[in-house]
Specification:
The complex is a heterotrimer of chains A (359), B (268) and C (600).
Chain A (H helix, E strand, L loop, with lengths): L17 H27 L4 H32 L6 H22 L1 H4 L1 H28 L8 H22 L4 E2 L9 E4 L2 E4 H23 L1 H11 L1 H6 L4 H27 L1 E2 L5 H14 L4 H23 L11 H15 L14
Antiparallel strand pairs in A: 1-4, 2-3
Helix pairs in contact in A: 1-12, 2-7, 2-10, 2-11, 2-12, 3-5, 3-6, 3-10, 3-11, 5-10, 7-8, 7-10, 8-10, 11-12, 11-13, 12-13
Chain B lengths: L3 E10 L2 E11 L4 E5 L6 H8 L7 E6 L2 E2 L5 H7 L1 E3 L12 H7 L9 H6 L2 H19 L19 H13 L5 E5 L7 H18 L2 E5 L3 H7 L2 E6 L2 E6 L1 H5 L2 H6 L3 H13 L1
Parallel strand pairs in B: 3-8, 3-9, 6-7, 7-8
Antiparallel strand pairs in B: 1-2, 1-4, 4-5, 9-10
Chain C lengths: L2 H26 L2 H5 L3 E3 L3 E2 H17 L17 H28 L11 H7 L5 H21 L5 H19 L1 H15 L10 E2 L2 E2 L1 H31 L2 H53 L8 H15 L11 H23 L4 H20 L4 H4 L28 H23 L2 H11 L1 H6 L4 H27 L9 H14 L4 H17 L1 H4 L2 H15 L14 H15 L19
Antiparallel strand pairs in C: 1-2, 3-4
Helix pairs in contact in C: 1-3, 1-4, 3-4, 3-6, 4-6, 7-9, 8-10, 10-15, 10-18, 10-19, 10-20, 11-12, 11-18, 12-18, 15-18, 16-18, 19-20, 19-22
The chains are: A mainly alpha (359), B alpha/beta (268), C mainly alpha (600).
Chain lengths: 359, 268, 600
């Protein structure tokens, strides 16, 4: 039974870096289109300087909202290495529930009489509901599956997302509800002579405050250190006396709280809520988290801002010039395209490494 | 010309020099052992040869062909098979299926063959099965017929190691790389393994490179021994040459040498 | 009370709380009210209160379970009958009390501006039309009694217990299947006038008649009991039959099944044939995704993209309303569509090959959405028709008129049914063949351990792409049939939810399991089509199923039978192998010195 197989000779194509070639072609195409589109738009002068300014501010505001939601994704991923697909619904739960309180305030006049107090209460309600939702999620759907192969928690998360969406649909109805806005937040403020929508100011400032607070929390406090430790190595962390379960729950809670806050800010900005409102923002926030480097809190913030700006500028700057009719229809596609491109070319994100994780 | 030649092979992970300028030659029909303390870079060496890592420098020549930097499946197709330090079987496949998968590079049925099953494909499937059973029979009565359809997950530890070797044999390689095949075996099993490795060369004509810590195996099978420490080759020769080499003893911090010596004395 | 008793009581209380939470959930989400429209037993019970009864029953059943025996410990003395039913009553009563609390709350405060389901009809159901006060007491009582009954099941010997459960399940099933079975019976009765098929003895008012309910229960329970006690005898008798007779038996069964499939549209009538057609489309999609997810282990959340490509390609090539004025008809377009789909499979698969499982899922989701957004946009309108879609997709033509099947144009649900069924059978056949092949083994190996699979000489790129292309092709066939079935296509039909629905089917049935996919499609697609009340909660149920299956039975309801090899098949193989090898010493077992007889 001697092995008689002659050594296989390798063909010429054995070493062809096919993947690299295709990716090269793809990058060149993208860069070229971006360049040409931008050039065409600027030459055509379709938009004025003020328009561009508005687009940028709009992008930053939108991006701030994404950043807040993205935190939740990145915190959970950094500690459990799972994508909490249902996080968008956590965001929705807070926003939607706060609507009923807001409606009461509006009808009784409290909202306009005492806007700051009213908003504080709305935030509290939204945060409470979001936190509760995410705790239930962790306890019922995720904790039992901690050791399972990665696809299992993902499928569970997808199921949980569907379940939550439709539960709220059953509870509150399928309508789109108009979210009231206090008169204080209507209109614009003049910041350095530039008129900015008041809601945009609140969103940007609010997000900034929360992001900085979170960053300090993670890097300075004991809980924050525990969270990082558990993210590094669960077993060793528990051997060092850290209660891993509690840390995980706290992580979910923080992410949930930020999502709840984002929910109110979103509702105030867009003046509406409905059971489906969490789905796209959820995916986009996830894109932002990946863009910035999943697991990295600063990355999530950066990613959110970048995504917001891209969403605002790509249809206007590039696609208009490229001759695409109704470019704003493709706005959602921008986020998905960014998602796909980032995961193909640089899964580690802006702040991550270029090496991808192998299985 | 040797079957396998490593020229100045290096692999660095960032600042860590896992393998550093290793030159190696393995002749056809030879059994070479690679030894060295933990972390010496032995498994990394295997990984570079079999394409799991790209070398930082140097070349790998197999049977006259430069196979440096090829992908693992290409390396296997060319005629090199390997086992892993921690047994990595396909746990949810049966014993026989594991060995059938091993024949992938030597067979060619594709999608259309799978769907329409022309006579060529049918006979190929039969041959795959037969060859698989033959590979299992090489291990004596370890893998009786009724075991062939049992899940690999249910095997004993020693049987799992044997199955991994059988799976490696299935692709009719010219070169077989065994990574610590005796790890976790008791003395009787180790004896059996030593004899098995010899039979693989004598009866199947395989050239074998073994990474081992158990010096009884190394002594029992090796034509040639290479010692690595911190990624560098520090000695080579016959077992006797290497066992007495000062630098080798030092690398093992002296203690291990006494251990192996006393174990040898105990065996006699 | 002893320790064991305390923990049993606690368990009962927990069960009651969970049951109560479930009942409250069903109420506030609107299911109880919505399901009330469905009659279970005519003039006896509808599905509204019926749902509550089921909750109480299961609560009682779970509460009444004897304590689990742990390894190595002494089995504790079995609880007394009184303890068992007492616990059931307790749990059921607690659940009922929680429901009653909701009832009282809803009666006291009008919550409809927030919780839209807290309507008066709901409260009437919860209170059994007795008003809030008395109704609450009745609720607690009902909960307790039914919980007691549920627990009482544990007192029965296991064969009888199983018979009762089977009987009740059959009751529920036959009742819910009224839209299907009732229609079938009406059709058969109309043409044959065979009294057995007169539906009025079984169904009335959309549900079972009292007599019918009793008959179904007794029959099902009886068969279950009979089977449980006589199973071995029957199996033995069948096994003892000589092989040719068994073969003949299998052949007869096969032909009966084929005949049934063939005349099914006649029996079902137009509407039901259309439903089966839709189910068939999803069976195809499920079988395709099964190859990608079940065999190769690649979670493709953008699978709807292949469905869309198939549909759009067919529409664009064959419809006069699209931008091609081409001479294509369905059959000439088919190979082109397959080609386009294969290319799209490679285009979508290639970039994502190196990605890890969950990232792969998200990227494919992204692809799916990008495809949909572009298809619906004004930008692509010249080709895809934008939001208006493409109309006037012509029906395929088979040139002649055939009995049963119809023709020459295959329009109408009955005719298209045949096309779809043939495709499903072909897809199932392909799946079976692929499983037990070199490619199938490569997929399993890759799923188990990608690195080691590569070390076995398996090209990961090729193997993954093969899975994508196969899945894409089968999915695109479903798209083709979809286009001609509806006669026009709109981008709204290609939402992410389709991918998730198909995923739910595969997960529920069992990843890698062909009968599982078929069953899953019938349950998850067929049921909502038949039962309009369920249709509203379709997605909710999908979500619950995904979570539930992953938590409790990740291998699905009908796990794939990869490993089930019959004993005599193996013995037969051994003889064949011996004959092929011939008498020789070569390969005869060599006992290595010191290696033989090792007990480990």
């Amino acid at each position: 039974m001697a092995t008689e197989t002659p050594t296989a000779r390798l063909g010429l194509t054995a070493r062809l870096p096919l993947r690299a070639i295709v990716l090269w072609i793809l990058s060149v195409t993208i860069i070229l289109s971006v360049f040409l589109g931008t050039k065409a738009t600027l030459e055509a002068g379709t938009f004025s300087g003020a328009d561009w300014r508005n687009f940028v501010i709009q992008g930053i505001a939108q991006g701030s909202l994404y950043a807040l939601i993205a935190m939740g994704y990145t915190l959970v991923y950094g500690i459990l290495f799972m994508i909490n697909f249902a996080h968008g619904e956590v965001f929705m739960a807070g926003a939607f529930t706060s609507f009923f309180v807001a409606r009461e305030f509006d009808q009784s006049g409290f909202l306009d009489a005492n806007p700051i107090l009213a908003l504080a209460i709305l935030l509290a309600v939204a945060i409470a509901v979001s936190v509760l939702t995410t705790i239930l999620l962790e306890r019922i759907a995720y904790r039992p599956l901690r050791g399972a192969p990665r696809l299992v928690p993902l499928i569970t998360a997808i199921g949980a997302s569907l379940f939550l969406q439709n539960t709220f649909r059953g509870l509150f109805g399928a309508r789109v509800f108009g979210y009231p806005r206090p008169g204080l937040l209507d209109g614009t403020w003049s910041i350095f002579g530039v008129p900015v929508l008041r809601t945009q100011v609140v969103v940007i400032v609010g997000a900034l405050v929360l992001v900085v607070a979170l960053y300090l929390f993670i890097s300075r406090t004991k809980t924050g250190r525990s969270m990082r430790a558990v993210g590094e190595d669960k077993e060793i962390a528990s051997l060092m006396g850290i209660d891993v379960d509690r840390v995980i729950v706290k992580t979910f809670m923080i992410g949930g709280a930020l999502a709840g806050a984002a929910g109110v800010l979103w509702a105030l900005t867009f003046k509406q809520v409905n059971f489906f409102m969490g789905f796209f923002p959820g995916i986009k926030a996830f894109t932002a988290a990946v863009l910035g480097g999943i697991g990295n809190v600063v990355g999530a913030a950066l990613g959110g801002l970048t995504l917001g700006l891209l969403e605002s500028l790509v249809p206007t700057l590039i696609l208009t010039g490229a001759g695409v009719p109704s470019p704003n229809q493709l706005r959602d596609a921008v986020a998905f395209t960014v998602l796909v491109l980032v995961l193909i070319f640089r899964p580690g994100g802006i702040l991550g490494t270029a090496e991808e994780e192998k299985a | 010309m040797s079957l396998l030649e490593l020229h100045g092979l290096s692999k660095h992970f960032g600042g860590v020099k896992a393998v550093e300028r290793v030159d190696l030659k393995v002749d056809d029909g030879e059994i070479l052992s690679v030894i060295g303390p933990n972390g010496a870079g032995k498994t990394t060496l295997f990984n570079v040869v079999t394409g799991f890592n790209d070398p930082t420098a140097g070349r790998v020549i197999f049977d006259g062909q430069d196979i440096t930097g090829l992908k693992p499946n290409q390396v296997t197709t060319v005629g090199i098979a390997r086992t892993f330090q921690a047994v990595r079987l396909f746990k949810n496949m049966t014993v026989l299926e594991n060995v059938m998968v091993g024949q992938h590079p030597r067979t060619k049925a594709g999608i259309f063959g799978a769907i329409f099953r022309p006579p060529g494909v049918k006979s190929e499937e039969e041959r795959i099965r037969d060859h698989g059973r033959k590979m299992l029979e090489f291990f004596g009565d370890r893998f009786p017929w009724k075991m062939h359809n049992e899940l690999a997950a249910g095997l004993s530890y020693a049987d799992r190691r044997r199955l991994e070797i059988a799976r490696g044999m299935a692709s009719n390689p010219k070169l077989l790389l065994l990574d610590e095949p005796a790890a976790g075996m008791n003395p009787r099993e180790t004896e059996g393994l030593t004899a098995l490795i010899g039979r693989l060369r004598d009866e199947l004509g395989l050239t074998i490179v073994v990474i081992e810590h158990d010096m009884r195996v190394v002594k029992g099978v090796s034509d040639h021994v290479v010692v690595l420490d911190h990624g560098e080759k520090i000695a080579e020769g016959s077992y006797a040459d290497v066992a007495g080499d000062e630098r080798v003893i030092e690398a093992y911090l002296g203690k291990k040498h006494e251990d192996t010596r006393s174990r040898e004395e105990a065996d006699q | 009370m002893r320790d064991g008793d305390v923990s049993l009581v606690r368990r009962a209380v927990n069960a009651g709380l969970i049951g109560g939470a479930a009942a409250i959930y069903f109420a506030v989400v609107g299911m109880i009210q919505r399901f009330d429209a469905r009659v279970v037993i005519y003039q006896v019970v509808t599905l509204g209160p019926g749902l509550l009864f089921v909750v109480y029953f299961i609560t009682g059943f779970l509460a009444g379970r004897p304590p689990a025996v742990r390894h190595g410990e002494e089995p504790p003395p079995p609880p007394s009958a009184a303890s068992t039913v007492g616990r059931g009553a307790l749990a059921g009563g607690i659940a009922g009390a929680l429901t009653a609390a909701l009832l009282l709350l809803g009666s006291a405060i009008d919550m409809r501006s927030v919780l839209v389901s807290m309507t008066q009809p709901l409260l009437d159901i919860l209170s059994f039309d007795q008003g809030a006060g008395l109704g609450s007491l009745v609720e607690v009582l009902v909960g307790g009694v039914i919980g007691l009954l549920g627990a009482a099941l544990h007192l029965l010997p296991s064969a009888i217990r199983r018979a009762v459960i089977v009987g009740l399940s059959a009751l529920a099933l036959v009742s819910l299947m009224e839209p299907l079975l009732g229609q079938v019976m009406r059709n058969i009765f109309a043409s044959t006038r065979f009294l057995l098929f007169d539906p009025t003895w079984l169904y009335r008012g959309g549900g079972l008649t009292r007599v019918g309910a009793i008959i179904v229960f007794v029959l099902a329970a009886g068969i279950s009991f009979f089977w449980a006690t006589r199973k071995e005898v029957i199996r033995g008798r069948v096994g003892a039959l000589p092989a040719p007779q068994r073969q003949a038996g299998k052949l007869v069964a096969f032909f009966l099944l084929a005949a049934l499939l063939f005349i099914l549209p006649e029996i079902l009538g137009s509407f039901l044939s259309e439903v089966i057609g839709t189910v068939g489309l999803y069976v195809l999609l499920g079988l395709g995704l099964n190859i990608v997810v079940g065999y190769a282990g690649l979670l493709d959340l953008g699978y709807v993209a292949f469905f869309a490509v198939g549909a759009y390609a067919t529409a664009i090539l064959t419809s006069p309303a699209a931008f091609t004025e081409g001479p294509f008809n369905f059959w000439t377009a088919l190979p082109l569509v397959v080609l386009i789909t294969a290319v799209s499979g490679i285009a979508i698969g290639a970039p994502v090959l190196r990605l890890r499982g969950d990232y792969l899922a998200i990227v494919t989701l992204g692809f799916g959405e990008i495809v949909r957004i572009i298809a619906i946009s004004n930008w692509a309108r010249p080709w895809t028709g934008g939001a208006q879609g493409i109309l006037r997709v012509p029906d395929p033509s088979i040139g002649v008129e055939l009995p049963f099947i119809g023709g020459p144009e295959l329009n109408g649900p009955e005719s298209l049914y045949y096309l779809i069924v043939i495709a499903c059978i072909a897809a199932a056949f392909i799946s079976v063949r692929l499983q037990d092949s070199r490619v199938g083994r490569a997929w399993v190996a890759m799923r188990e351990d990608e690195q080691v699979a590569e070390a076995m000489g398996i090209s990961i790129i090729k193997t993954k792409l093969l899975a994508f292309v196969m899945g894409a092709t089968i999915g695109s066939f479903s798209g083709m049939f979809f286009a001609v079935k509806i006669g026009s296509i709109f981008p709204h039909s290609f939402a992410l939810l389709v991918s998730i629905a198909v995923l739910s089917i595969v997960v529920l049935g069992g990843m890698g399991s062909i009968p599982g996919v078929v069953a899953g499609a019938f349950v998850l697609i067929g049921l909502p089509e038949l039962l309009r009340e369920f249709a509203e909660y379709r997605l909710l149920i999908y979500g619950a199923i995904l979570v539930g299956i992953m938590l409790f039975k990740p291998e699905g309801l009908i796990p794939s039978a990869r490993r089930q090899l019959e004993l005599h098949e193996e013995q037969y193989e051994e003889e064949q192998y011996e004959m092929r090898r011939g008498p020789s010493d070569e390969g005869a077992p060599v006992v290595a010195a010191g290696g033989g007889g090792d007990p480990t």
